[in-house]
Amino acid sequence: MTISEDTLFLIYELIDVIISGLTNGSVYALMAVGLTLVYGVTKAFNFAYGSFFNLGGYFAWILINLVGLVGGYFSIFLAVIPLMFVVGYGLEKTMVAPLRKRDEWEMKVMMLTLGLALFMDNLYAVVFGGRVKSLPPFLEGTLEAGSLVFSYQDIMIFFLSISGILLFGWTMNNTRTGMAVQAVAQNPQGAKIVGIPKNRIFAATFAISTAMVGFGGILLSQKYFISPMSGGAIMIKSWVITAFGGMGSIRGGLYAAFIIGMLEAFVGWMFGMSYGMIALFVLLLTTLVFRPQGLMGKG
Fold first, then answer.
1. Inter-residue contact 82 to 264 (CB < 8 Å)
2. Which of 60, 172, 189, 200 suits 273 as a labelling partner, its CA being 20 to 30 A distant?
3. Can you give the pTM of this predicted structure?
4. Residue 149's beta-bridge partner residues?
5. Is 141 left (phi over 0), alpha (psi -120 to 50) or beta?
């Protein structure tokens, strides 16, 4: 039995779509873990998450194009990820921490981060201009497996995203800070009784999530462009992933990220990329109607 050329072409297209969905989904998962971590520990949503995504991309662009940092992306990661961690920690200590002394501080933090997002996005427009910027790929070329062609760039993005997620999981389960974070998320009052510094843990989770989304910003900015307002789409996707997976559920966020990555890829392939965001909102509204706690949330 022979397969027609049209059928082979369709199969290859489907494989390309699946690869695109897995690649984007892996980065979404990396970023969703950070956002879910903050919500799980503090019960406050960080609306500046998309702006921090852009910040990671812009930091990398500065180091490559203005500073001329040598050593390739290895040096970029060594410079940008700790810098993003420091930015997140500093912002939490100076802007978020004072609000925790007030009533209904979670709502005030969400309003603060929303204002911070607007400020950062407009600052990007002033500093970098409205024109889009791009980062060079990790590796040029493709890997050929018979008639299938895989981009080295996509392979590296997927590998690094999964590595980041695994490193996060190891940190949460094998370090004192990680176990303290889990204790605060599960029982804040009990964690305080046994002497875990809750304020320091809040700052650490904010810093870790900022570093993770900055890492994601570097990865995806190679496939797509960086623009002052592109963080808004990332913020929406991160929020949909967090709600769809279950607010505060890291495992649910991981599942949701890959589901949404595949949904986005297939909808874009069948109907056009402009319909991808519509599909996300349809999925979110359907979830809120039939399972408001999300995939892995507690009902």
1. no
2. 60
3. 0.88
4. 144
5. left
